[in-house]
């Protein structure tokens, strides 16, 4: 058996190196644990920031959706008002005696705004005559029609043709 002997100073030097390596290992382990803890903290912070941003953008999305719904309701209401603020003639005729001249004017309910007078289209008049006058009418006869609401001095008369004569007449 062979024994190796080293000097005391060399032994102490090696022991010192060994202790230094042990301390470095322990220090590196602590740094590793600190770094792992810091990584975990940063990971949690990142997750928290992501969650906060997602919640923030979801809230913004909900607010935008509510705003959009409100704007759509406003648009529908405005469209309804616009559709009901316009006047449309039931027939294709001409307008006379217009009493309003400003766009967007307010008028009282039931007020006459204009008169619609016959235009170039075909107009059929149903007239009632007394028994004594019916004998003077015949189909195809030319007629000159005067309307009581349209004074003939101002509007003239409407020319037409008798297209049918009924079997009954009015009584006086």
TrEMBL record:
Q: Which Pfam families match?
A: Beta-barrel_AprE
**Any GO CC annotation of this UniProt entry:** membrane
Keywords in alphabetical order, please: Coiled coil, Membrane, Transmembrane, Transmembrane helix
Chain ranges of the AprE-like beta-barrel domain: 123-169
Q: Where in the cell is it found?
A: Membrane
Q: What is this protein called?
A: AprE-like beta-barrel domain-containing protein
Q: Lipoprotein as a keyword?
A: no
- Where it mainly occurs, coarsely classed, is membrane
Q: Which residues form a coiled coil?
A: 22-52
Q: How does it sit in the membrane?
A: Single-pass membrane protein
Q: Which organism is it from?
A: Bartonella rattimassiliensis 15908
